[in-house]
Design goal:
526 residues; 23 helices; globular
């Protein structure tokens, strides 16, 4: 594992999950310097995925480091933009970001002999073709820069970001196939290759337990590449502070580092920097520097088989309830504050997510489990918000999404896979599930949540909670101040601002203020 010390350990990101601070695109270049100088991060991710980030931001960030610090970008601190996906957004935006990378590198090379930007992230990666095409376009842009401006740069390497459970289960195969295709297309494979794993979006579509197990399955598989291929691989893990999005905060740090052994880089998102206690982010950065990477948990073929069957069961139970909740979640999410400048959610210039292709999981699962998973999926794509607002919306009605489908799936797993498999789930595969649920229980209030749920949906959630109370001796004690704010959330009030209705300005301010205060109490918007 010592080979991986060359990779950055903490990537500061522009995720809009802070409940206490809105950050404009004009502030973000300064935020990048703050990430290094104040928080001690060694990497920053300018974000263009569905976000209204100016194309020249890469240039601004490099210039700020050169003008205001002694840190050399590309040597002392790493700038790793997330470009748009040509499949999910459009090729024009992707190419514009690549041009801005070239311009930033041109400016940096005029200042020193160090290239500032050496990698870029490709979001929502599903196929090898997407990766190789994006890498080819980056190579084409590099050639154009050489022709037009007379400077040579090493072509920045792509980092595929894998964000749904089916793709996570095939992360090793995707990486392996990518490296073979890379060598075939470009003549040689890269000496270093990083893969970015996303917890949030896999949780949104498959639930908390299934997404956690999928991420750990991916980490195990990718870690095997080190011994199988002559390449230096690195795993970036994208995690927010709430359990549903990864539970990376100072209080849960020990659980987190044990749970996700094998990860080399973690994200430090906005909530931890701006909504947690002062000094927490810096302390977590120091911990990450000392702990990462740790030897991974490598799963045997038999354990992998158990994992995929558990993922199938938990994913199916979660998906059944999600279908019922989707319309209410979408309305609620629209009332949460916008903490970064985003593109429109829909339209050719915007960004929206489709339901995942589950065939990759169904094929791996036991036939009866795969059949039930397939039946649980909606017939058509659900209209859902991004993961942060999705999580925030459910927390705001007293139903943390960590509970959805979890209890009934646990009962079903015990019946179908046996007590020993369930014991391994709770002690080896996901030992911090109990602490995750304990944390979330401080924001659970089924009396309030019931106002937003259908009768059938409420019964399912109640069954979940009954099993979880018995299994974990779970005690539901909502924080008093949070409960008061929850009681203010009435369906009639929220409905007034949707479906073309015009919400009174004072009522609108009250709703937004209440939702923001709730976010501040849980120390994250979502």
């Amino acid at each position: 594992m010592s080979r991986k010390t060359t990779f950055p350990k903490v990537m500061c990101t522009q995720h809009p999950d802070s409940a206490s601070r809105y950050i404009s695109t004009q502030e973000e270049p300064g935020e990048a310097v703050e990430a290094a100088v104040v928080f001690g991060c060694d990497e920053y991710m300018p974000d263009y995925e569905g976000k209204a980030t100016p194309y020249h931001q890469n240039v601004q960030i490099v210039s700020k480091f050169i003008e205001e610090t002694d840190l050399v970008p590309g040597k002392d601190f790493f700038i790793t933009p997330r470009a748009p996906s040509a499949v999910q957004e459009n090729r024009f935006r992707q190419l514009m970001v690549m041009m801005s990378i070239a311009e930033a590198n041109h400016g940096a090379l005029e200042y020193s002999d160090v290239q500032a930007i050496n990698e870029f992230v490709h979001p929502m990666t599903g196929t090898v073709r997407e990766i190789i095409e994006a890498q080819q376009h980056m190579a084409d842009v590099s050639e154009l820069a050489k022709k037009e401006f007379g400077f040579s740069m090493e072509v920045p390497r792509i980092i595929p970001l894998i964000e749904d459970a089916p793709a996570l289960l095939h992360a090793k195969e995707l990486a392996e196939s990518t490296l073979l295709a890379w060598k075939e297309r470009f003549g040689t494979a890269p000496e270093k290759f990083r893969v970015f794993l996303g917890k949030s979006d896999s949780a949104l579509s498959f639930g908390h337990v299934a997404s956690t197990l999928s991420c750990k399955y991916a980490i195990s598989g990718l870690s095997e590449l080190d011994s199988e291929l002559d390449i230096e691989t690195g795993i970036i893990f994208g995690a927010g502070t709430l359990p549903f999005r990864g539970h990376l905060d100072l209080k849960n740090a020990e659980n987190f580092f044990k749970e996700y052994r094998g990860v080399g880089t973690v994200t430090l998102q906005s909530a931890l920097r701006y909504s947690h206690e002062k000094g927490d982010a810096q302390a977590l950065v120091r911990l990450a520097e000392a702990r990462l990477p740790e030897a991974p948990n490598l799963f045997s073929p038999e354990e992998k088989e158990e994992l995929v069957n558990l993922i199938g069961i938990f994913g199916a139970r979660y998906a059944r309830v999600l279908r019922e909740l989707a319309p209410a979640i979408d309305r609620l999410a629209g009332l949460l504050p916008q903490q970064r400048d985003r593109l429109m959610h829909k339209g050719k210039g915007g960004y929206s997510r489709n339901a995942p292709d589950i065939s990759g999981i169904v094929q791996l699962c036991r036939s009866d489990i795969g059949k039930e998973l397939k039946a649980s999926m909606p017939a058509e794509a659900l209209h859902l918000p991004r993961a942060i607002k999705f999580t925030g919306a459910l927390y705001s009605i007293g139903l943390p999404p960590e509970f959805i489908g979890t209890g009934t799936a646990l009962k079903e797993a015990r019946e179908k896979l046996g007590d020993e498999v369930c014991e391994r789930l709770l002690t080896k595969y996901f030992p911090s599930l109990a602490s995750d649920l304990s944390f979330a229980s401080g924001y659970l209030d089924l009396n309030v949540a019931s106002r937003f749920l259908s009768g059938a949906c409420l019964k399912e959630i109640q069954r979940d909670l009954d099993v979880l109370r018995d299994t974990f001796s779970l005690k539901v004690r909502p924080e008093p101040s949070y409960r008061i704010l929850l009681e203010m959330m009435q369906p009639e009030l929220l409905q007034a601002g949707t479906a073309g209705n015009c919400m009174d300005e004072e009522v609108s301010q009250l709703v937004c203020s209440t939702l923001t205060k709730m976010g501040k109490i849980r120390k994250a918007l979502g």
